[in-house]
Amino acid sequence: MNNKAIQANLLMLLAAGIWGFAFVAQRVGMETMGPHWFNSLRFFIGVVALVPVVLWIGRNKAKTIDQENELKSSNKTLMLGGLAAGFLLFVGATFQQVGLQYTTAGKAGFITGMYIFFVPLIGLFFRMKTGLGTWVGAVVALWGLYLLSINEDFTLSKGDTLQLICAVAFAGHVLMIGYLASKMDTVKLSLIQFFVAGVLAMGLALYSEQLTWEMIASTAVPLLFAGVMSTGIAYTLQTIAQQHAHPSHAAIILSSEGVFAVIGGFLLLNEVLPPKGLLGCGLILVGMLMSQLMPRLRLPQRHKPV
Q1: Which pLDDT tens digit goes with each residue over 245-265?
Q2: Which of 97, 122, 126, 194 is the most interior residue, by most CB within 10 Å?
């Protein structure tokens, strides 16, 4: 493994750690602020954090006259793509943030991470082929979800159910970004989607919640961590790292977000999972990795006699 690949892996590990601990910030933030205002302000802070990145990338790209004309003609496509991606991001973030009121940061991190195998499953509806490895990974992860979240009366708790819906929404968001990424500047797309998600979350907040300067001041640290660190810095680290990282390594490292969420919940919120829950977390992690690393697994073919 060369130095660039090692550096890329370390950057992605740092990004996964930031995202994992962001679940703690999001949960703490709702002690003094409603979930929709928290999301709205978080996304707007993320927009501010990404603006310097967009400007820096723009200054370091040599543009010809043809390229500038092409950029002007693609602005409409960029805006439409940003609206679509922003809506899906808003849906996922809303269910995640509201659900965090009723579950732990660690459980939310692992259940949200299940979007990794929901992506190929949803892809079936768009005629995307899915191998046996994805199905095996899904079964393993669902078994883990049962151990982690299913109650004695065989029901999911309210918070865990909302996190599961969040994972499905984020899977749709990943598919949307995958479709749009080859057609436009992904950093600018992210800037627009964060703004759209922030506006939609603000609409919900204005309808259902109150906001005061005291709330903002009391929630400043969680907001800044979720906005600057999780949205701005971690996204930038991932973008830089994945230019040099092997896809398999990226899947393994980024899926550790759920592990960091459990660690953060334990260290900062005194959240403790029982052995059954820890086993469930482990199975979810194994299932997610199988769906990413073994998507083309096939049953062995028996050769017919000639």
Answers
A1: 655 566 667 777 888 888 888
A2: 194
Q: How far apart are CA 212 and CA 220, in angstroms?
A: 12
Q: Are 250 and 12 in contact (CB under 8 A)?
A: yes
Is 152 within 8 Å of 49 (Cβ atoms)?
no
d(CA 183, CA 77) in angstroms, rounded, equals 9
Residue labelled with tokens 């082929």 = 129
Rounded Cα distance between 131 and 191, Å, is 34
Distance CA 173, CA 114 (A): 13
For 171, what's the count of Cα atoms within 13 Å in the CB-facing half-sphere? 22
Alpha helices, H only, the chain: 3-29, 35-59, 65-73, 75-99, 105-112, 115-123, 132-149, 158-181, 186-208, 213-218, 220-224, 234-241, 247-254, 257-269, 275-293
Residues in Cβ contact with 38 at an 8 Å cutoff, skipping those fewer than 6 apart: 26, 29, 30, 97, 219, 222, 223, 226
Q: Which of 38-47, 241-250, 276-285 has the lowest mean pLDDT?
A: 241-250
Residue 41 has pLDDT above 80, yes or no: yes
150 - beta bridge partners? 156
The band of 44, judged by pLDDT with boundaries at 50, 70 and 90, is: very high
Predicted local distance difference test score (pLDDT) of residue 67: 54
pTM over 0.85: no
Return all residues near 186 (Cβ < 8 A) that are at least 6 apart: 177, 180, 239
Dihedral over alpha carbons 235, 238, 242, 243 (to 10 degrees) = 70
Tokens 């393993």 map to which residue? 140
pLDDT tens profile 161-204: 999 999 899 888 878 877 776 677 777 888 888 899 999 999 99
What CA–CA distance (Å, rounded) separates 290 from 141?
9
Nearest-CA neighbor of 166 among 117, 204, 112, 105?
Answer: 112
